[in-house]
User: What shape does this take?
Amino acid sequence: MSGPTIDANFALNIALLLMLVAIAFAVVRTRSLLAAILMMSVYSLASAAWLMVADAADVAFTEAVVGAGASTVILLGAILLARGEAERVNWKLMIAPGALAVVVGAVLIYAAGGLPNYGDPASPANSHVGRAYLEQTYGDIGAPNVVTAVLASYRGFDTLGETVVIFAACIGVALMLGFGPRATLAPPTEIPNDQHVVLRVVAKLLIPLIALFALYVQFHGDLGAGGGFQAGVIMAVAIILHALVFGLRATMAAVPVRLARTVAALGVVVYAGVGVVCIINGGGFLDYDYLFSPRIEAMIPANLLGDPSHEHHWGQHFGILFIEIGVLLTVSATIVTMFYGFAGRTLETIEAERRG
Assistant: This one.
């Protein structure tokens, strides 16, 4: 007589959730900022694994590259402006916030009991909006990846707002932190010949590959997981890796601060410019079907995407491509600008400014 069976997928979900709870508890308990940042990076990786189990590949991809990648590097640069350990807080002051967090958590758990079962085809999301996207996307947009069609076309206004928010973060960091005295230093005349030769050689091999992978993720967004947000982070990681290995001044000489800020603004201009062109051609803002005039659209070869039998929506294809390029430019330049803002200042430079 066989005993009760346990679904492997359910067991994996429980294991990942327990791991997330344990890591979150460790982050709260530690006083070392460095340890907290590293554990938060592990938390992001575990979250990405959990999202993959939940079949949310695009969200998992974003969590991995943003949470475990770029955020970790920026936070490591930010602790240069702070102490190595957090200050001790009187535990009595944490009673009220802790009680409030428990109450809110209990309410959320109670509300979650009224949600439909995971993957239920009769749920409102799957039987109405989700089904409409799955049934109409290929005919309306022509993009094989429904997620890309939703984010870049159906919800193009929302994605534009997200891009503007990222650009606003770039402006905020530039206004609050500046770029420190290092930003005005002359670039080094040559790379010193020290014990880090192996590291430099490996970095020279990896940086072009990382940039190439960023372009692959960018142009693969129509077919699978990827797009401008993920590609922008990966491209920024390549530049940040150059700064970590070859020094901040060398990287600022290759990618100047002014260039990074200009590219961040250019990405928003490219995104919004696509909508303006659609209006000029007689359509609505970000209505990609009016991106090309009928005469220009007729000049595009039918087999450009390898499927001449399918009725292609060239305005949709190129509109999504152009706005994703705008997102790539803004995201990558914003992350590089934020890294410059944090890494360009240290406790020593701040104290020197105060003494001056």
About this structure: Residues 127-356 form one domain. Confidence is low (pLDDT under 50) at residues 182-191. The chain is about 70% helix and 0% strand.
